[in-house]
Amino acid sequence: MQSAAFTLTPSLRLPKLRRPSVSSAVKTRFDPIRVSASSKPNNFNDAVSVSLPRRSWSLSSSSSDFKLRRWTSVPLVDSDARTKRFEVRATAETAGESSESGSSIFKTLELGALFGLWYLFNIWFNIYNKQVLKVFPYPVTVTGIQFAVGTVVVLLMWGLNLYKKPKVSGAQLAAILPLAIVHTLGNLFTNMSLGKVAVSFTHTIKASEPFFSVILSAMFLGEIPTPWVVASLIPIVGGVGLASITEASFNWAGFWSAMASNLTNQSRNVLSKKVMVKKEANMDNITLFSIITVMSFFLLTPVAIFMEGVKFTPTVMQSAGLNVKQVYIRSLIAALCFHAYQQVSYMILQRVSPVTHSVGNCVKRVVVIVSSVLFFKTPVSAVNSFGTGLALAGVFLYSRVKRIKAKPKSA
User: Which residue ranges run through the membrane (predicted)?
Assistant: First the structure.
């Protein structure tokens, strides 16, 4: 028996099935017949013209008594489209969150790698620099060589377009000149101290930089420190004094050179605030440091020749019984590390806050002190270790309380 399906109301009397002719089947496409449940049609033709929007019945011819069974309607097209749009939107949001999470993890790893390079370059610089100064006691010449290597690196960066070459005006150069002078003196005094005393002792003295920063800022910038900042200076000064008294390699020349390095380095920071350098799009921290490096080379080279003469030649070093190749290699490594750790330091400063950078600098000093003690097997007493630790703890405390702002006085 041929199967057929009709959409009828329950009250409609079933008509006899007629096999449609071929011509009518071709002309008309078969659709279920819809009738309204609320109307009562008089005949079959009237029932065809009335539509039932949602409820329908299907007629099955599988049995002789034509039992009616309810059939499941197909999901609406609009609902399916909304579902697909929801799924696409949810997938896009999930992909966006995954991308942001991946980017955050990458930035964290990148920052951690920069901190690691900062510490590593600093350790290598101090070790190789101390080895050179032990056998070649000419700190002005050694400092000039470090600026010379840094200048070559900067010119290569600009020449190979690894970093955009800046366009600096005469007014900007005049404003940067004082920064270059104190930068040159700061590094020169550090090398003078490293040539006289142990690396660990030099960095212990240099831990008192916050003391000079507070004094100079109050004198020239009118920045009055908070009571918390003043309190953090007490363990710094006490720790440095305790470490100096018990230092086995104590030397007054090395001590005052390190103190002078603190004074000049912090003067550089104060001048960078005091002197208004016109900042343009091409004058970021790395560019400023590169210009200062080049200017320091031209400032210090004639001074080194005048004070110490031309000492860095194979003939002079061979006459002094030195291994020329060894001194040259160690000087080059020290100079490259000197420039690299300062470049990385500025790269970190562009990514984190000054407070975070200050904390990282404190940790770096601890790492350098411990590494130098282990490498050079420097004798350190218990009292000396306590003094060094107290000074470094004060530096860490200073870096934290620096964020506390003084409350403005009410009128």
Answer: 111-128, 135-158, 170-190, 211-237, 286-307, 382-401
